[in-house]
Design a protein that fits this description.
The strands form 13 sheets. Strands 6, 8, 12, 13, 14, 16, 18, 19 and 22 form a nine-stranded mixed sheet that branches. The protein has a five-stranded parallel sheet with strand order 2-1-3-4-5, with helices on both faces. The protein has 1377 residues and is of the alpha+beta class. The chain is 28% helix and 26% strand.
């Protein structure tokens, strides 16, 4: 940022002048009063500097003590100066933290004058008359801006270094010496007191006068004056301190708020706290100061806008044109923006800076030519526009709006580029233009860099640009100046850097690119001037040409690229080699050769630092420092992902430049390696950038070069014939295995994909001329092989693991070159290399052949055929090879890998079947180049013998039979794995005395001779639900004694342990199916709770009045199948006795054992007494827990095992239906004629909250066959919730019959209506109030049977019910006596 005045780009902050600290420790005391002893040294035990011990009292021989006020003044200076320093970027905590920018001045510092009169006229001139004006105003004749200047940096400097908003004055408060030690002398005490009062009064008056004089200067500019008095700690306890301070404040006319402080020597922590409190107290006056300035400037701006002609009248008579109203708007908006920035109001400052910037653009685009090009005012205005642009970008970044900051930068570049081209004649062909553009990018990068170095740092969005794909050439510098330089650096990618803020390294790279173009334009201008001088033509160089010649262009380019490289390593993803490593290691995530690279953010940002490093190398190359360029290029090419990802257009200039460097430094071996590598990568010409030494601009270094270039093979052969290698006895190895090989070896084929150990397998390898794509996209032959002296080709076949990769020793095919005449060479050569065996001694692992290794014809093919077999099982393929080139004293080995060939070859897999004429057949299977050698399998037969299905809870036997069908004696081990079932139930297997829920390993079946079998029983116990149970059985076999005896190499593979895997599924079904039917009945013989009976409160007390009885009918059916089941036992397992209790079960233990055939069933009845909890009937959806289960003991009838399975059938949940008010009628089933019997009705109120008022009526007709003794009509007692009442009648039967109707009995419950409930209490008591009557249902307990929803199972036999009522007629059987 040194290109611009620091005053115009620095962050503005409230300014505080501090005076008095440089002399506070040097103030001399007044002469001591007569008759007084000198004061003792000030206490300094509490004063210490950081890292030093406290100062002790005086002692003989000790060093003189430091004045505590000198220490305090030094610490105050450090504390105030460290709060805030001038900087371009200020963190938010500093901007919003009420922190001043402190300037230390002398106590008698003078402020610059606000206004000055016109200067005195020179001799012969008329005196000027007019009002006094600011010396920095364009209206003042002596101003540097007179008459049409905008803003001078001196104006900002005035408000940051010459005029403060707050003035803090540090002064020493007078302290009189200590009194005499003799306290008995009253006269001396009186004299001391009078002397002290007189001295303090005089010194305080002098102090107030000094403050008053300083205040006169601050009041003129409305500057807040604050005085800090320094005193010893003992003065704080002096009772006269308050009166002295009040006197000083009054006489010095100090303000009442934040104008006078007292400070004593304190610790470092307390001192910092004082500084914070002082700034907090003075921030409001400072803000008011800048607000007043802003209001004054706003009034002036409004006056100019309302009357534009007023500003030109002030300087009438001047020859130079005055500043136009638009210029005054620029000036006033800029001032208001600065004052808002002083106040910390970023949004207000941003608005005014934008208004000033727009007004300034209006001056540049004005048709009247207010700012002619290349004038002083034009240069000042252009600098001001650049500085305002920086301010706007910074304020956007403060507000966390990076996209707007980037948009402002791009807009500034676009607008001024248009102005430069259309109005000023400074286009893209001038070095001035690119110098200005590069300066904008550099300043923006420096701004971002300072932001990222602050605490907390500026957050850069986590997006990085991506480089173009392999099929997309990098874009050159845009022809239009309105577009940014992103495309020239990045090219076409998935991210547009014009709309996404990058880290500062990107903009340093953009600035470096502009510096390259600037140098190129300067070199063009220099060539034009030198050419004109040579031809004798007079040509005037452009403006600034002399200064441009002094510029170190290459140094600037190198500096910018170096910064960009370091920042890319810092902000980008973790690069290989670490963020600080100059040598980056290759990335691990390389793509397959020939595939387009993944255009992702991470990969793109990892490549970009290498691209920048390449530009650094080009800069070193252009400056003639070839050694440094060689080092950079070596690092780049070792790590450049372009090698592995086939970025040919970008890799070619890198290799070409490195080749040129190697030639200039005289490294012949390196130049040979690079020439061969470029040839292998398909570059038929060197493509050495000849313009590198002349220019570094993007156009001369374009990746698409069409210049005439030397043939690479001819250059290489010339080197072979004219030079010798550095080490003449050793061959030169060119290790470029990520390139496409010199020969097309894509057709390395095996006739079949699999073979057994020691079985022969035919193979063919076709050596042909590779074909590649040219620049037009068509396929052409790579005809360089005809010129290369290839003397040997070595191919390696290697065992490999499909997961771990290539590993192990290899067997090789060596083909040597033999000369042949033109007539002897055919298009297709067949070379029989013999037998290739893997597994023999190392010296026998080669087979040889001879062929003519010159491909003068593009269709020439050399077919190598042979037989391959291996003595060990593995996967094999031809993985690598070496091509040897020999010429003169040079021997060059070019290794390659067949599995990394680029998919550029047109040769499809095909097999030669006939030589005359040549005939090929295509190989259409996958992996034609891979041969899998398998072990010979042991012939073992495994069978599983078991029933069709298993039952749940059964110990199901499975017989495993293993038969040795092999010719050798085998040892057999069996593993069994039980897979988890779908319902996650726990199943169990038993095998050879072991039990497990999952895996049983290593069950030995012994050594089995050929033809011998062995069987063992596996037991499966299935729990939970039915379904399928899956068992995996692993049978391991090995030759008996293979680990103790030595076997020959031919049977070694057969002696290894082998595994036979089999899976079988066992269907599992339930042995029984069942269904439940539950009904509920009420019990009338239970009286319910009796509070008078103590047994009611016992824990064992059982009350089933609410629950009644539950009758569960369970039907059990034997499972379908072909086997019968023997049921050995059946019993009820009671589990929950809290709410239910078994009364009766229909099946006794004596019923079993029984044999059940498939489909047989039996029924079980169980009666349960129910006692639900009190809150059961509140929730209608609730149910009681299951009361228990039936346990059935059984086994298969055909089973030879004594194991008895136990299956449990759980009873359903119990849901007794609720009742409200119910009448239960009890009477015998049969009575005798003329013998009385008792009919009883139990009336129960089972409602939870309501009270019942029942009444009963018995209607006896003449036709009734009974005589009744009892209540005919009457009111029953009121029943509270849970209470019951009993009413009975004595009946005398008069007729006989099986069904005799009983008298008609009706019960009503009278409920009060809402209107009646609001009536008088007397009416309610008398029973005359109106109410609703509901008839109560009478239930014959002899036939009570309900479902869980409360509905009856069936209608009561013999009961007649009239329509719309509950009138029922019950019957009874009467027999003769």
């Amino acid at each position: 940022m040194n290109s611009y005045p620091a005053e115009l780009i620095v962050q503005l902050a409230p300014v505080m002048f501090v005076a008095g600290l440089d002399s506070a420790a040097n103030q001399q005391r007044r002469p001591q009063a007569s008759g007084t002893s000198p004061p003792p040294p000030a206490p300094t035990a509490a004063v210490s500097t950081q890292g030093t011990a406290p100062v002790a009292g005086p002692s003989s021989g000790s060093k003189p003590e430091r004045d505590p006020f000198a220490i305090l003044a030094a610490r105050l200076r450090d504390a105030l100066a460290s709060q805030r320093r001038p900087a371009v970027w200020s963190p938010e905590a500093v901007r919003k933290g009420k922190i001043f920018q402190v300037t230390f001045v002398d106590k008698n510092v003078q402020f610059p004058p606000r206004k000055l009169p016109p200067p005195l006229p020179e001799a012969g001139q008329q005196p000027q008359h007019g009002p006094n004006r600011s010396p920095l105003s364009p209206l003042h004749p002596s101003s540097p801006l007179f008459p049409d200047g905008l803003i001078a940096p001196l104006w900002v400097r005035k408000h940051t270094a010459l005029v403060p908003s707050v003035f803090v004055l540090f002064l020493r408060l007078y302290e009189h010496p200590h009194p005499p030690t003799d306290t008995s002398d009253e006269e001396a005490q009186r004299v001391y007191k009078e002397e002290r009062e007189r001295m303090e009064k005089d010194r305080d008056a002098e102090l107030a006068k000094e403050i008053s004089q300083r205040k006169e200067g601050t009041n003129e500019r409305s500057i807040k004056l604050t005085v800090v008095l320094l005193a010893n700690r003992g003065m704080l306890d002096d009772p006269s301190l308050d009166s002295r301070l009040s006197n000083i404040r009054r006489r010095a006319t100090l303000d009442a708020r934040a104008a006078l402080f007292v400070l004593t020597p304190v610790t470092q922590t307390e001192l910092h706290e004082f500084v914070r409190s002082l700034q907090g107290a003075l921030i409001d006056p400072a803000l008011e100061y800048y607000t007043a300035h802003s209001k004054r400037v706003r009034r002036k701006r409004n006056r100019v806008q309302q009357n534009p002609s007023s500003v030109s009248a002030h300087i009438a008579g001047q020859h130079a044109p005055p500043l136009r109203p638009e210029g005054w708007t620029v000036r006033y908006e800029y001032k208001m923006a600065c004052f808002a920035e002083f106040r910390g109001e970023d949004e207000v400052a941003l608005k005014h800076f934008q208004d000033s910037y727009n007004a300034l653009l209006g001056l540049f685009t004005s048709i009247s030519g207010t700012l002619p090009a290349r004038t002083k005012r034009w240069a000042e205005a252009k600098v001001l526009a650049d500085c305002i642009n920086i301010k706007i970008c910074k304020l956007y970044l403060y507000n966390a709006e990076p996209s707007l900051a980037l948009g402002q930068l791009n807009s500034h570049l676009r607008r001024f580029a248009e102005l430069s081209i259309k109005m000023w004649g400074i286009g893209e062909t001038t070095y001035e233009y690119w110098a200005w553009v590069g300066r904008q990018y550099r300043v923006f990068a420096e701004l971002l860099e300072q932001g990222t170095l602050s605490v907390p740092p500026l957050t850069i969005p986590t997006v990085v640009p991506a480089i173009p794909t392999a099929n997309t050439s990098a874009g050159a510098v845009p022809a239009s100046a309105s577009t940014t330089l992103a495309s020239s650096i990045i090219g076409i990618g998935s991210l547009n850097p014009s709309t996404h803020l990058m880290h500062p390294g990107f903009y340093y790279a953009a600035a470096a690119t502009c510096a390259e173009k600037r140098r190129a334009r300067f070199l063009d201008a220099l060539s034009a001037v030198e050419g004109a001088d040579t031809e004798g033509v007079q040509q005037q160089p452009g403006p600034g040409f002399a200064n441009e010649k002094k510029s170190d262009h290459l140094g600037t380019i190198l500096e910018l690229y170096t910064k960009s490289y370091e920042l890319f390593k810092k902000f980008g993803p973790s690069l290989p080699g670490g963020p600080g490593s100059p040598i980056l290691q290759p990335q691990d995530n390389q793509n397959q050769a020939g595939q387009a690279p993944v255009n992702s953010f991470s990969s793109g940002s990892a490549r970009f630092p290498l691209w920048v490093a390449y530009r650094i190398a080009l800069t070193y190359f252009a400056s003639g420092r070839y050694d440094m360029a060689n080092k950079f290029l070596e690092r780049i090419t070792k790590t450049y992902s372009l090698r592995r990802e086939a970025w040919g257009p970008l890799l070619k200039p890198v290799l070409s430049t490195w080749y040129a460097c190697s030639q200039r430094i005289g490294d012949i071996d390196l130049s040979v390696r690079l020439a061969i590598e470029m040839m292998l990568r398909g570059y038929p010409s060197l493509g050495i950038p000849g313009q590198v030494a002349d220019g570094l601009d993007g156009e001369s270094m374009s990746l698409n070069q069409d210049d005439e270039e030397d043939d690479i093979v001819e250059d290489l052969m010339a080197v072979f014939r004219s030079t010798v290698p550095t080490k003449q006895d050793d061959p030169v190895n060119v290790n470029v295995q990520d390139c496409e090989p010199l020969l097309d070896l894509s057709s390395a084929l095996f006739w079949e994909s699999t073979a057994e150990v020691d079985s022969p397998m035919a193979f063919q390898i076709a050596l042909s001329v590779p074909q590649r794509e040219n620049s037009e996209g068509s396929r052409v032959s790579f005809g360089l092989l005809a010129k290369l002296p290839i003397t040997r080709v070595r191919l390696s076949c290697t065992p490999f693991n499909r997961e771990e990769g290539v590993g192990g020793d290899s067997v090789d095919i060596v083909v040597d070159h033999e000369s042949a005449g033109d007539n002897e060479v055919t298009t297709v050569q067949v070379v029989d290399v013999g037998e290739l065996v893997y597994g023999v001694a190392k010296d026998s692992r080669e087979c040889h052949g001879n062929a003519h290794l010159r491909w003068n014809d593009d269709d020439a093919i050399v077919v190598l055929k042979g037989i391959f077999h291996s003595q060990t099982p593995s996967d094999f393929k031809f993985t690598s090879g070496v091509v040897t080139i020999a010429e003169g004293r040079w021997t060059v080995n070019v290794p390659f890998r067949l599995d990394q060939q680029l998919p550029s070859s047109l040769t499809s897999p095909r097999w030669l079947v006939s030589l005359s004429p040549p005939k090929f057949i295509p190989m259409r299977r996958n992996n034609v180049s891979v041969l899998r050698i398998k072990e010979k399998r042991h012939d073992v037969n495994v069978k599983f013998i078991h029933e069709d299905h298993a039952f749940v809870d059964e110990r199901f036997p499975v017989t495993i039979s293993v038969t040795n069908m092999d010719a050798m004696e085998l040892e057999i081990l069996v593993d069994v794995l039980l897979q988890p079932s779908e319902d996650d139930s726990v199943n169990r297997i038993e095998f050879a005395g072991e039990q497990s829920t999952g895996l049983i390993k290593g069950v030995s079946f012994g050594a089995l001779s050929p033809g011998m079998s062995a069987m063992k029983a596996l037991y499966l116990t299935s729990m939970g639900s039915g379904g399928e149970r899956v068992l995996d059985v692993s049978v391991q076999s090995k030759v008996k004694g293979a680990s103790e005896i030595e076997v020959s190499s031919r049977i070694e593979h057969h002696a290894r342990a082998q595994e036979h895997l089999q899976t079988f599924v066992v269907p599992v079904v339930w042995p029984f199916t069942f269904s439940h039917e539950t009904t509920y009945s009420r019990r009338a013989d239970n009286p319910g709770y009796n509070l008078g009976d103590l047994d009611t409160f016992e824990r064992e007390y059982w009350d089933d009045m609410y629950g009644g009885e539950a009758n569960v009918q369970t039907t059990v059916t034997s499972a379908e199948g072909r086997d019968s089941i023997s049921v050995i036992g059946f019993k009820f397992m009671e589990e929950n006795k809290t709410y239910s209790k078994l009364l009766h079960c229909s099946i006794a233990e004596e019923t079993f054992p029984q044999e059940l055939w498939p489909g047989d069933d039996f029924v079980v009845f169980s009666s349960l007494s129910l006692a639900p909890p009190e809150n059961y009937f509140i929730d209608n959806s609730s149910s009681l827990p299951e009361p228990g289960c039936y346990e059935i003991s059984w086994r298969r009838t055909t089973s030879m095992d004594d194991f008895v399975a136990q299956t449990r059938i759980r009873l359903p949940q119990i849901q007794p239906p609720p009742d409200r008010l119910i009448a239960l009628m009890r009477l015998p089933s049969t009575v005798h004629l003329h013998k009385p019997f008792l009919l009883e009705i139990v009336l129960r109120n089972l409602h939870q909250t309501r009270t019942a008022c029942p009444s009963v009526s018995l209607d006896l007709d003449a036709s009734d066959a009974f005589v009744v003794a009892g209540l005919r009509l009457g009111q029953l007692p009121t029943l509270l919730p849970g209470a019951e009442a009993r009413v009975s009648w004595q009946l005398y039967p008069l007729e006989c019959g099986p069904v005799v109707s009983l008298p008609k009995i009706r019960i009503f419950n009278k409920r009060k209506s809402p209107a009646t409930q609001l009536g008088a209490m007397s009416e309610v008591a008398s029973g005359d109030a109106d109410g609703e009557e509901e008839e109560v249902k009478i239930v014959d307990v002899r036939r009570d049977d309900r479902w869980s929803d409360g509905n009856d199972v069936e209608s009561t036999a013999g009961a007649a019910q009239s329509e719309g009522s509950l009138v029922q007629r019950f019957t009874i059987s009467v027999t003769p006596s």
